[in-house]
Write a structure and sequence with these properties.
By secondary structure, this protein is an alpha/beta fold. The protein contains 6 helices and 4 strands. It is about 50% helix and about 15% strand.
């Protein structure tokens, strides 16, 4: 799965983390590994222009999704000429999302993760124009985002434990298995 990100917003954010949230959502939704996704972070002015041009609504917004190709799920995996499908573009506006994050009581990156998952779901055909659609989409968004946060927390916990283990082994004059597997600086395996 190819995910490209470009930050033209002027706001410093963890782009790798945003890509990770998008990849997690796409994996959870069982999107083809051949899919391609583009994420663009823009300024308030650019988002306002896009919002007015494409939605005919005034002012900026937090996220917009622009679906592209339909993924052909009926295609056999062994069929020749399988080619990547361009899922679409997600456009995020960190400057707009800052106030939402503050109101929600969480960090900007958490808001951008939420908006990324929201954008992925829009690209996959989910909408929230009708009450039943909104319940379905927002429940799915909440579940995926919660599972993503749990997975990140588990990785952070594992990394912290490894760091502690390495420190203890170093104090004892031993080398951790991970460090023993790494070649000395300047050498290649």
């Amino acid at each position: 799965m190819s995910i490209e990100i470009a930050n033209e917003s002027g706001v410093n954010v963890d782009e790798t983390s945003i890509v990770s949230a998008a990849r997690y959502a796409l994996d959870k939704m069982e999107v083809s590994p051949l899919a391609e996704l583009s994420i663009l972070l823009v300024t308030l002015e650019v988002m306002e222009d896009l919002h007015e041009r494409w939605m005919d609504l005034p002012g900026p917004t937090d996220v917009m999704a622009f679906p592209m190709d339909e993924l052909d799920s009926s295609r056999r995996p062994d069929a020749p000429d399988a080619s990547p499908a361009l899922l679409g573009d997600i456009v995020l506006c960190p400057a707009f999302a800052k106030d939402q994050a503050k109101t929600a009581g969480h960090a900007l990156i958490d808001e951008l993760h939420l908006l990324t998952v929201h954008g992925v779901l829009h690209l996959l055909g989910y909408d929230h124009a009708e009450p039943a659609e909104e319940r379905e989409m927002f429940a799915l968004q909440k579940r995926i985002l919660g599972e993503y946060q749990d997975a990140v927390a588990a990785l952070d916990k594992r990394d912290a434990q490894r760091s502690t283990d390495d420190r203890v082994l170093g104090i004892a004059g031993l080398e951790s298995p991970a460090a023993a597997a790494e070649p000395p600086a300047g050498e290649t395996p």
